[in-house]
Amino acid sequence: MLVFTQRLKSNTVQADLSLALTAEERSRSRHRFDHPNGTALFFQLPRGTVLRQGDLLQTEDSSSTLEIQAKPEPVITVRIADELELLQAAYHLGNRHVALEVGQDEAGQYLRLQPDSVLEDMLHHRGLSITAETLPFQPEAGAYGHHHG
Questions:
Q1: Tell me: the pLDDT tens digits for 68-117?
Q2: Long-range contacts of 52-57 (CB under 8 A, 24+ apart)
Q3: How many Cα atoms within 13 Å fall on the side-chain side of residue 73?
C-alpha cells in the first residue's frame, strides 16, 4: 500500500501514477482508494484538504508521486445571457449550501452542480438554461477553503 502524506507545492516532479477521482472523492483527506493497476493507495492528508485537477501527492519517503485527475461525472450546467440572473441563481443555490462550480468557457459564464431535480425545477422556474452533461466537476472550495493556484 502506498501512503500519500503530502501535496507538492510545484508541478516540477513527474508523477509515476495518476488517479481520476470525483469531486466528492477529492474532498476525502483520509481514505483508501484502489488504483486501476491494483495498487492500494491511502491518503493521509491534513483534514480539510480538497484536491484539484493536476494536484500532485507524494509519499512520505518521496518514493512515489501521484497526479490527481478530475473524473468526469454527471453534472448540470446552468447558463443565461443576463449576468444578474446568473448571480441571482448562484445566490439561491448558495443559500442551499450546494457544491457549485462557477466558471467561464467559450460559451460564456456558467454555474455547474450535481444533478438534483428540486434545484433543476427552481432553476427552470427562474428561466435559466440547464444542460445535463458528464464532465469533471470542480466546485468552489468555499469561503474558508484552502484554495491554491
A1: 999 999 999 999 888 999 999 999 999 999 999 999 999 999 999 999 99
A2: 52/26, 52/138, 52/148, 53/136, 53/138, 54/11, 55/7, 55/8, 56/7, 56/8, 56/11, 56/13, 56/15, 57/4, 57/6, 57/7, 57/8
A3: 18
What distance in Å separates the CA atoms of residue 89 and residue 145, rounded to the nearest whole number?
22
Residue that is last in its domain, among 53, 70, 87: 70
pLDDT digits (tens, 9 = 90+) for 39-54: 999 999 999 899 999 9
pTM exceeding 0.70: yes
Range of the domain at 130: 72-136
Q: What is the CATH number of the domain that holds 32?
A: 2.60.260.20
Question: Of 20, 50, 70, which closes a domain?
Answer: 70
Whether the Cβ atoms of residue 65 and residue 17 lie closer than 8 Å to each other = yes
How many folded domains does the chain comprise? 2
